[in-house]
Design goal:
Layout lengths: L5 E6 L7 H15 L3 E6 L20 H12 L2 E7 L7 H8 L3 H4 L3 E7 L7 H12 L3 E9 L6 E2 L2 E2 L2 H22 L27
Parallel strand pairs: 1-2, 1-3, 3-4, 4-5
Antiparallel strand pairs: 6-7
Helix pairs in contact: 1-6
Length: 209
């Protein structure tokens, strides 16, 4: 029986009906179709402190810190979805990542989504890659940037079928990579046998000892 994976989405946008949030919902819906448990952590709905660099701080006055850390720790894969502001990721998402440390993130698989008001670029996604690498996470090679965000979707349905296809492919890659990297080998079935090379032929024409 295949072990159930948990995929967490972290939504950075504070705007209702945001493009990055709609893209995240699509990815998580696809992951659920593939048999995963899914959960969304919406930064706009919680109160997080500004990180002061102490990664071991308990922040007792901010219960959302423990909630965020626990959600990431329990997840096998994480999708980070952010709007791009002034050429970078949302400040809310960067602060949330700064409140995490290796025990919460190490070895987990991450996927990245960004939504832009104009033309597509990879600025915010590159920043996500840098932060995930420093947190010892595995970042998927796949990523999705959604251009012209305010006109890209209506009610969570994207007008460009290519965007929908790329988000679906991101979910597929995330689940596939998470199963490969996180689950123990026994969960993948027996490994294929490797053929051993034939014994080397006896030397020909050598002198008798």
């Amino acid at each position: 029986m295949q072990r159930e994976l948990e995929i967490l989405g972290i939504a950075a946008s504070a705007r209702k009906d945001s493009t990055s949030g709609a893209a995240l919902d699509l990815v998580l819906a696809r992951a659920a179709e593939l048999g995963c448990r899914t959960r969304v952590f919406r930064l706009a709905e919680v109160r997080l402190p500004f990180c002061d660099g102490d990664k071991a701080a308990a922040w007792p006055g901010y219960p959302a810190v423990a909630e965020l850390r626990g959600a990431v720790t329990r997840a096998h894969g994480v999708v980070l979805a952010t709007p791009e502001y002034h050429g970078g990721m949302s400040g809310a998402l960067k602060n949330a990542l700064d409140l995490l440390d290796f025990p919460h993130t190490s070895g987990r698989v991450f996927g990245g989504i960004s939504a832009l008001g104009g033309r597509s670029n990879s600025n915010a996604l590159n920043q996500l890659r840098t932060s995930v690498r420093w947190l010892h996470g595995w970042m998927l090679p796949d990523q999705v940037a959604v251009p012209q965000g305010r006109a890209a979707h209506t009610g969570g349905r994207f007008h460009d079928p290519e965007v929908t296809a790329r988000l679906t492919a991101l979910a597929d890659s995330l689940v596939r990579a998470t199963r490969a990297l996180v689950l123990p080998p026994a969960a993948h079935g027996p490994a294929p046998e490797r053929a051993l090379p034939d014994a080397a032929p006896a030397a020909q024409g050598g002198r008798d000892a």
